[in-house]
Amino acid sequence: MQGCLPLCITPQLTRPGRLSAGEYISQYFFGGHMSVDIPEDGWFSQEDSTGELKFQRGFDDTRTLDFWIDIYPIVDGIDPPKPVEGFDGTASGMLDWIAANPNLRVVSRETGSLAGLNAEVIDFERSPDAVNVDPGCPQFGQPCVGMFGFQEWDGFYSQGGPFKLRMFAADASWGGADHVVYAMITTANASGFDAFAPIATTMVEGAQLPAGVQQ
Q1: Measuring CA to CA, how many Å separate 136 from each of 35, 78, 80, 105, 148?
Q2: pLDDT value of residue 134
Q3: Exposure check for the chain: N or C terminus, fewer CB within 10 A?
Q4: Nearest residue to 51 (alpha-carbon basis) of 23, 71, 36, 74
Q5: What stretches in the chain show pLDDT beneath 70?
């Protein structure tokens, strides 16, 4: 697998829609060679692209599981997003930035697994002192916290409301190049997190990455 993946591949996007229980093999994400076990019928995928693989349970888009590669933290309040200066592109560097962001509050930080890779795992939520840094945030969701960007995305990853998130970040390499693989469990609130995170965590841990990905 080429070390320049995903940015050297022509951007592609499909929206698979309703999924059946069993193995889902990506069409475009990770070069079309990543698989995730769907635990039951009725799950959906709203995006399988060169920049993101997204799943949700039923029609509830307030609880999602996203997989990414080589995202970066962004400077507050700027659209199109600007990468934070000094970010070293590592899993620890990303989690350190989250921990230091005054608009976020870390609930826990520990080790875990992402598709067989050793990962750092951080649970976090909006800080009680957060201020709105997303110029496109709707009034009902403010304050919104803008967090991550990627070169192929139209905008950036931002959350409003009393969200609770879990990020897995794993340093990896393929084709002689260093990368970071991410999984993000997104929920709109703590009760949604408690119900969804255990299911999504099992999916993250049991996913299979393409041959040639190593630590």
Answers
A1: 34, 10, 11, 22, 15
A2: 92
A3: C
A4: 71
A5: none
pLDDT at position 44: 97
Q: How far apart are CA 168 and CA 180, in angstroms?
A: 10
Two tokens, residue 85: 């200066």
For residue range 34-68, what is the model confidence (pLDDT) as tens digits?
999 999 999 999 999 999 999 999 989 999 999 99
Which are the contacts of 104, defined by CB distance < 8 A and separation ≥ 6?
A: 98, 124, 125, 126, 127, 130, 145, 147
DSSP-assigned states of every residue in 26-61: -SSGGGGT-EEEE-STTEEEEEEESS-EEEEETT-T
Helix (H) or strand (E) holding 185: strand 177-187
Which amino acid, 144? C
Residue 5 CA to residue 178 CA, distance in Å, equals 11
Beta bridge partner(s), residue 68: 182
Tokens of 116: 């067989």
DSSP state of 141: G
Confidence (pTM): 0.96
